[in-house]
Amino acid sequence: MSEFSTIVRIIQQRRLKGKKLLIEFDAPASPGTATGKEQRLIALVTEKPAKTDLELTKDLYGVNSAANRAAFRQLRARVQEKLLNNLPFLDYTDQQGFVARPFEIECRTLLYRASLLISEGETRFSERLLQRCLKKALAAEFTDLAEQAVTRLLLLYSDAIGWTAYEKVLPQAVAIRQQLAVERRSDELYNQFRMLAEGGVAQKRQLLAGAHALIAELAELHAQLQSYTTFYNLYRAQLSYAEYTGCYEDVLKITTDAQQLFEVGQINRKRFDLRFSYFWIVYAHLRTQHITEGLELAERYASAFLMTSTNWFFFYEHYLLLALHGRRYDLAYHLLQQVYKNPSMKKIRPSALERWELLSAYTLLMRPADPPLLKRRGSRLPLSELTMPEYSRDKAGYNVFILVHQALEFLRERRLDAVTLRLESLRKYQQRHLKDSSLLRSRTFLRLLLLLPEAEFQVAQLTHHERVLQHLETLRRAPFIAPGATEIEIVPYEHLWELTLAILRQGPPV
Prior knowledge:
By secondary structure, this protein is an all-alpha fold. Helices cover about 70% and strands about 0% of the residues.
């Protein structure tokens, strides 16, 4: 039901106030009627988007029989068709949405209307619509839409209006098509870059080998054309490469340069969304450990993100991590409260919910006096008693964070058997999965924890233990940003070691 619930959410968020829809969300349902079931289905999906087809069938029909499942599929198809018919009548003009969307939708609407009129034999009015579309598409640098508009104009002039008008627009059509060919080549190069960057280990090795050539060709195309599309493809490729190689100072320079170009009008204001740069700037400050400045920027930029968008949650993840890294645990807890009060949280993906569970657990670990915020779906168990999610090896960092959190919670509870078992799990995990050079800090911190039993959980022994001192020095020297590292330390390992010693000062596990 994920696709269906997504459509319901879009319609509800973007419906025009005071305008009737082709299917009414708010009208009272008439029990037992087809319309009543349509409205009840929408109400059920709105209340709980994650409900399965079987659950909805039982809610709507009482019994989960084969006949009722068939009836449910027909009902869902009927309602979905009505919902899709509402898409042209929604409000896409809100200032917090993607900045280019209103211009794109306006151009597509003009194209659609002109095409319908042409098919009915109307030429003069359809010509005016196409001219409006062409002007707006060129102003917003939607070259593909401009090409569609000018192509329809040429067909219209050749069929009905005449040679003079055709000759007048033909040179413009040729120029637009030439520009579109260059932009499509730029799109192809960026798509290749993106697939390599988001692929597995083999693809990422291929990216490292060929990234400079791809970026150089993207830069050459932009120098040739100076269009928004060529700029944006180059911009994103440069940011992705800087992230993958751990060059976050380059990220700050790239985003700062883009903002300066935007301010002087060299980047199309109808297309470039500054929030994309805001996200990267805050992320780069986190990665480079410019915490104080990063927190100031995060506070300034936060209001730019729409609370109903998934980007809001991604931005707040980095905002919260900045607070944790800056030891601003009061702020971290306040940010968590904002997140859990956001009604859209029930609509984010399960993997994102798991990340927020982990962030919440670490915030409470550093500030244990605060009440828990998270009510896990179908469970009220603390993280220490939950089964570790099966993250892939590419997400090994998350598994480390879960295991470490569990060990520290058991240590705080002074449960010797539980601590011993968890440390054994950490030892095995470290040997099997933390061999890569990018995981040096995680590997070193786990080795520190594994020395706790050897020092009999005594702070006095740990502070003078030779291998403890060696590992702390390794941790100090290890680069916080390792090339190829994908996960961010939720709390810096140095701070977690301080917490470990503080817990042990309250008494060893028994």
